[in-house]
C-alpha cells in the first residue's frame, strides 16, 4: 500500500512538472481537475482490488499529460517508463507484464514525431530486469509458502501426523507457479528414503499400496550428482529430486501427467525451487525420523513391561482359579458348628490353626489378584479401542515388517478394492502393534531363508497372514501351532517355555477379539515346511478414512 501511494505521488509530481515546463495540450487549469479524477478512480479501483483497470488508468493519465508534447525530452521519456520501473512493486494479483510492455510501446508510437529504434533499448532492458526480479520474487514467495505450510503442520492439531496434507498444498503452489493453475501439472508427490539401491516409501500425497521401489546404481549415482533428474515414460514424466539430510538420503518424485507442460518450467528455475522446497520438507521428515526412532526404542521398552505385567496377570488368574479347595477349607471351618461333636473334636485343633492362616493368605492373594486384574491399575493397557481404517491397519503391518525384516507386505487385490470404502477395525493401537512386533520378531528368529506377509479382505474380515520357512524345529512348531489354535485358557501358560511369546500374543488377541489360526504346510516339491499364522480382524462400516 505504501509503495503504491508513493508511486502515484511520483506520477503526480512528474505531471505537475511537465505541465509547467513543457508545452502541450493539457494546461495548468485542467491539471488539477485531472488529478482529482485520477485519485478518485484509483481509490475506487484499489477498493475493488481491480488491478487491470488501475494499470489502464495509469497509462491513460500519462498519455493525457504528454499529449501534444515532445517525448524526446528526458523528463517525458522517463515519465513514460515509470510503470515499467515500478512494475516489481505492482500490488495486483496479476502483474500483466506483457500488457505493460505493449502499452508502453503504444504510448511511444502514439506520441513520437519520428520513429527511433534506440527508444526500445531502455524499454526492453527495463522489462527484462523487471521480469528477472519478478521471477526471483516468485521463487522466494513459493519457498516462503512451503515454510508456512511446514510451520502450520506443527501448529495445527488437525494436520499433525497427516503430512499428505502438506504435499497437497505444495502441489497446488508448484502448479500455480509453473503451470498457472493449481489443477494442472503435478498430480502426485512421493517421498522415499534410500537403503542401498532400494527406495522405501515414507509419504505420498495420495495413498499407495506399493511401498518399495528400485533404482539402478548408475541412475542413483547420476541423481546424487545432478540433484534433479527428469525421466520420461509413456504419457508421464517423473521429476526425481535428491536431498541429503545428515546420514539420511531422500528422493522426492513429482509425477506429471502432461509432458508438454514441462517446456516452460525449464526456463523458470524449476530445479532450483524443487531443491529449496524439498530441502525444507526433508528437514521435517528428518525430525519425524528422529522422533520415530525414539518412539520405537520406547515402544520396545514398554513392550517388555507389558509382557511382564500381562504375564503376572495370567499367573494371578492361574493362582485364583486354584483357590477353590482352600476356599472350601475356610468354609468348612466356618460351618464347624453344624457338625457332630465327634467330628468336630477330631478336626478342631488342627483345622482352627490352619484355617486362620489360610483365611489371611487367601485374602491377601485375592486382593493382589483383583488389583492386577483391574484394567485401570495396569499402566500399560490403553482403556479404549479406536476405529482404524483398513488402509491404516495395512500401514501398521507394512511399517513393522519394513523396520524389522526390511521387506514388503503384499496388499491383496481384495483389499485394494476396498481402499476407498468406509471399512474400519476396532483395535487398541498399542496392543496391536505389540502383537505384530512380537510375532514378526519371532519370524525373524526362527525362519530359515524366506518369509511372506500379506493383508487381504474377505467376507467382512481383514486377514493378516504371515508365512515363514524353518529348519530343525519340527516338534517345537507342531506344539506352537497346537497352542495357537487351542481354546484352552491354560494354553498360554503351557506354551510359555518355548520362547514364542504366545502368552502375550494370545492374551492381546483374545482381548481385542482377533481370531488366530495357525498351521504348518509342506511343499512336496521343495521338501520345505512353512509355519503360517493368520490374524483375523472383524470389520465395521461408516468410518471416514481421514488419517492415512
What assembly state would you assign to the polypeptide chains in this entry?
single chain
**Inertia-based shape:** elongated
Please give the largest β-sheet. Answer: 7 strands, mixed
CATH architecture of the largest domain: 2-Layer Sandwich
Indicate the structural class.
alpha+beta
InterPro entries: HATPase_C_sf
Keywords: Membrane, Transmembrane, Transmembrane helix
Transmembrane segments: 29-47, 59-85, 97-130
Give keywords:
single chain; 548 residues; alpha+beta; Beta-Lactamase; 4 domains; 7-stranded mixed β-sheet; 6-stranded antiparallel β-sheet; 17 helices; elongated; membrane
In short:
The protein is built from 17 helices and 13 strands. It has helices at 2-21, 28-48, 51-66, 74-85, 97-111, 120-155, 164-178, 217-226, 270-321, 324-334, 341-373, 390-405, 413-416, 429-446, 474-485, 491-494, 502-511; strands at residues 186-195, 198-204, 212-214, 228-233, 236-245, 248-256, 386-389, 410-411, 424-427, 451-458, 461-469, 515-523, 528-540.
What does this structure look like?
Helix content is 56%, strand content 17%. The chain has helices at 2-21, 28-48, 51-66, 74-85, 97-111, 120-155, 164-178, 217-226, 270-321, 324-334, 341-373, 390-405, 413-416, 429-446, 474-485, 491-494, 502-511, and strands at 186-195, 198-204, 212-214, 228-233, 236-245, 248-256, 386-389, 410-411, 424-427, 451-458, 461-469, 515-523, 528-540. The longest helix has 52 residues, at 270-321. It is an alpha+beta fold. It is elongated and about 145 Å long. The strands form two sheets. Strands 7, 8, 9, 10, 11, 12 and 13 form a seven-stranded mixed β-sheet that branches. Strands 3-2-1-6-5-4 form a six-stranded antiparallel β-sheet, sandwiched between helices. It is built from 17 helices and 13 strands. It folds into four domains: 2-115; 156-292, Beta-Lactamase; 322-377; 386-540, Heat Shock Protein 90 (2-Layer Sandwich), CATH 3.30.565. The two termini are 43 Å apart.
